[in-house]
Amino acid sequence: MIGNRDYIAVFDSGVGGISVLRQLRRLLPNERFFYFGDSANAPYGTKSTQQVRALTFAAVEEIRRTHPVKALVVACNTATAAAIAQLREAYPEWIVVGIEPALKMAADYFPGGRVGVMATAVTLREEKFDHLLHRFDHSCQIHKIPAPGLVELVEAGKADAPETEALLREILTPYAGALDALVLGCTHYPFVTGTIRRILGPQLVLLDGGDGTARETKRRLEEAQLLSPGPGMVEWYNSLEDPQILALSSQLLERK
Predict the structure, then answer these.
(1) What are the φ/ψ torsions at residue 86 (nearest 5 degrees)?
(2) CA distance 106 to 180
(3) What pLDDT, on the 0 to 100 scale, is given for residue 16?
């Protein structure tokens, strides 16, 4: 039987979902979180939908085997696009919350405006994203911006490295002065917002789905009367089984 002291499992293809965990911990400080990063198989954004779905289910089954869970947060845009419907069907006893690019927020803020969506190739080609895009492409001008290689640099602890800035300049310079907002469609990308602002300017509005995912998780837990009385904690696991990736995870959680 599910209880309020059970875990909120947070799953990502690597360390990117820690940007969502930060928002969850801010809103739900009394909860026990189990963060599962699949860095051994990252990045998911270069894989097929079937591969992403299989990897996601393998990770979630491992979580279920080792921890009592009341909620699963899929803190990965690619895994959400590929597997969220199947996860909800397979685990009806859990609260299952995904993440998606914050296009609605961008369209609401900038009706008729110019909005970029930077994401992995899988997220941008998935039917789920296509449906989301067509809900708003009549009200604003949307540019798809794939960012190959960026996830790998964040996974390597190089969010602030010169090669990361060089890659982002190559990807984003064509959009300088041409966007009102940039939607960060991968949970790894909030860790490079400083570099993005240097390239596109401090006036650009950056949006991501982490806050909305955290708010929805809190709402669903309140509705189910499953909020924990505390104390809160974070437990880590990464499929890479490398002490350095766990150290990086802790650093990213506390990053300002």
Answers:
(1) -70, -35
(2) 9
(3) 97
User: Rounded to an integer, what distance in angstroms lies between the CA atom of residue 256 and that of residue 250?
Assistant: 12
Distance of CA 121 to the CA centre of its chain: 15
Which two structure tokens, joined as six digits, stand for 155? 């996974």
Average pLDDT over residues 200-228: 96
Long-range contacts of 60-68 (CB under 8 A, 24+ apart): 60/9, 60/11, 60/87, 60/91, 62/36, 63/9, 63/11, 63/34, 63/36, 64/91, 67/6, 67/7, 67/9, 67/34, 68/2, 68/3, 68/6, 68/7
Based on the residue annotation, tell me whether 76 is a catalytic residue of this protein: yes
**Choosing from 28, 42, 76, 147, which is the catalytic residue?**
76
Prediction pTM value: 0.93
- The reply to whether 140 belongs to the active site is no
Given a cut of 80, whether residue 249 has pLDDT beyond it is yes
User: Which tokens in the block code for residue 126?
Assistant: 């998935």
Q: Which of 83, 186, 226, 252 is catalytic?
A: 186
Per-residue pLDDT tens over the stretch 104-128: 899 889 999 999 999 988 888 887 7
**Residue 186 DSSP one-character state:** S
- List the one residue out of 81, 189, 184 whose CA is nearest residue 132: 81
SS (H, E, C) 64-86: HHHCCEEEEEECCHHHHHHHHHH
Beta bridge partner(s), residue 73: 10, 97
